[in-house]
Design goal:
The protein has one helix at 14-63, and strands at residues 80-81, 93-94, 107-109, 114-116, 127-128, 131-140, 156-165, 176-183. The chain has 187 residues and is α+β, with helices and mostly antiparallel strands. A hairpin with a 4-residue loop joins strand 3 and strand 4 (114-116). The protein is elongated, with a radius of gyration of 30 Å.
Length: 187
Amino acid sequence: MKRTRVTAHRGMTLIEVLVALSILALAVLALAPLFTISIRTNASSMYLTNANTLAREKLEELSGYPRNDPRLSVASGSNAAAPAGVTITGATIDTTNTWVVNDLPKWYQPSTGATSTAATSPGAGWFLFPFSRTYTIEPFDGTLTNRITAPNAYVVKLITVTVRPTLGPFPGLRQTTQSLYLRVKDA
């Protein structure tokens, strides 16, 4: 009998499998930071979207009020109303209008949807509200370049709403500012 040599292909050796798994592990480890970056970017985008929604909501609310409503008023001798600490170039700012400061709650309870303006947490299950919202009011003449000092007649009021995230991946960084001109009826 003649012996023939069998040269059948064998499976992969243990060394080859270990090398392949090592290369795969290095590739997966190289991609891992991309997942964390994408999660942070997604969260930041969500906060910015919510901030834009809150700003647009406030602008729509303010546009529905009569133009002489206290929420849209500027004190005599001033040509702008803004919260304390806000500067507007070339404006005499009224900081007595309490409507322009943050009108969002300080705390919220996600399980019930309840909100609170308490200085400290109302209890277990309450979380800081993740946004603050302020706005400024500036009355202008018909050219939209000259501010009018109250109580003189004006043609439009420029309302600028600013919403800042107070929590999240980039607190305070991804703020949004939206503006609206409110025209006086028959002006």
